């Protein structure tokens, strides 16, 4: 049969709502529950729903990297205790698809066990070896007057004062991902939405957006670029850097170490993957320029606008509760 079950066959609310996303609205009676107002679900639909809910929905973010906790296939029986909210639904899915759910053991590099990343966390000479490798392997990019990016400020005292859009004074530096007590940073992005995300804005904030352009050629190390590597994922420099910029504040000390090292090699700044790229469909880099580039005449402000948030949308999915 084409539609063996429908959304009303399920008890769990997350599964019901995913059925609305993947299923077909129809007034025909369901051959399983006999209700005529549910979204009809084919086996192909149910496979997609199961992947979305149990695999994507069980994703666990480790210190560096992450992985789904649950997987399913037709060869194993279910050995996961999902608890009361799924006790009726899981057997229905098992029977319909002929599958079982089990705990997934990922390859350990997915959880950040990468040699290069471990070296960056060390205090010995091995960290400097990786820092030199970063300089050698990642491409240098030159930006000039033809390029532009945006910088967002919130609740500034005088938005007409262009110095308000420069990097903070050195005495206020050290709280961000790349800046330190010895190196202040001007952060920006080519994407306005990323600027809004990075600044953790709220609807009551007064927001001002500046368009910035270099006044001369600036040498930038592009850490957002993909690089070719001959080694395995367990020695991957690209994954090490990628995981660093996806991590929370515990990664900041290593990121600052990279930033200071790149600065010491004569670069004007770094392009790096945004923490919020994971919630965008495309990969979006940020830019960090060393020092006070507006004051130093390296960057000029082309325009300042007030910006107001008038709509916010979220895409989301659901996942299972697991009894520990």
Q: Can you put this structure into words, describing what you see?
A:
The chain is of the alpha+beta class and 324 residues long. The chain folds into 2 domains: 5-106, no CATH class; 111-307, no CATH class. It is built from 8 helices and 15 strands. It has helices spanning 13-22, 43-55, 89-97, 115-120, 125-137, 192-198, 237-246, 252-264; strands spanning 5-6, 24-25, 39-41, 59-61, 66-68, 70-73, 100-103, 140-143, 149-154, 185-189, 207-214, 218-222, 269-273, 285-290, 299-307. It has a 5-stranded mixed sheet with strand order 8-12-13-14-10. A 3-stranded antiparallel sheet has the order 1-3-2. A hairpin with a 4-residue loop joins strand 4 and strand 5. It starts with a strand and ends in a 17-residue tail after the last strand. The mean pLDDT is 93.
Detail the poorly predicted runs: none
- C-alpha Rg, in Å? 25 Å
Q: How much helical structure, as a percent, in the residues?
A: 25-40%
Q: Which class do the helix and strand fractions yield?
A: alpha+beta
Average predicted local confidence, pLDDT: 93
List keywords for this structure.
2 domains, alpha+beta, 15 strands, 5-stranded mixed β-sheet, 8 helices, RES_dom, 324 residues, single chain, 3-stranded antiparallel β-sheet
């Amino acid at each position: 049969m084409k539609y063996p079950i429908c959304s009303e066959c399920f008890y769990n609310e997350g599964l019901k709502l995913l059925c609305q996303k993947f299923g077909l609205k129809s007034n025909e009676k369901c051959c399983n529950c006999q209700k005529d107002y549910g979204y009809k679900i084919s086996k192909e639909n149910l496979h997609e729903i199961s992947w979305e809910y149990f695999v994507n929905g069980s994703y666990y973010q480790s210190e560096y990297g992450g992985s789904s906790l649950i997987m399913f296939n037709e060869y194993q029986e279910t050995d996961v205790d999902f608890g009361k909210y799924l006790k009726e639904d899981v057997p229905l899915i098992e029977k319909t698809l002929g599958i079982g759910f089990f705990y997934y053991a990922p390859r350990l590099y997915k959880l950040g066990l990468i040699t290069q990343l471990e070296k960056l966390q060390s205090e010995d000479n091995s960290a400097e070896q990786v820092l030199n490798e970063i300089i050698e392997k990642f491409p240098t990019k030159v930006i000039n007057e033809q390029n532009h990016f945006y910088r967002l400020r919130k609740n500034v005292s005088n938005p007409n004062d262009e110095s308000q859009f420069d990097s903070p004074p050195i005495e206020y530096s050290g709280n961000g991902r790349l800046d330190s007590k010895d190196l202040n940073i001007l952060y920006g992005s080519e994407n306005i939405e990323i600027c809004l995300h990075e600044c953790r804005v709220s609807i009551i904030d007064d927001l001002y957006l500046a368009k910035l352009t270099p006044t001369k050629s600036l040498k930038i190390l592009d850490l957002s670029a993909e690089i070719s590597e001959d080694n395995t994922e367990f020695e991957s420099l690209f994954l090490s850097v990628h995981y660093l910029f996806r991590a929370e504040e515990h990664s900041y000390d290593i990121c600052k170490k990279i930033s200071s090292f790149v600065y010491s090699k004569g670069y004007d700044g770094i392009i790096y993957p945004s923490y919020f790229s994971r919630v965008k469909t495309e990969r979006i880099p940020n830019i960090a320029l060393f020092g006070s580039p507006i004051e130093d005449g390296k960057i000029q402000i082309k325009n300042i606008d007030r910006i107001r948030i008038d709509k916010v949308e979220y895409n989301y999915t659901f996942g299972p509760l697991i009894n520990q």
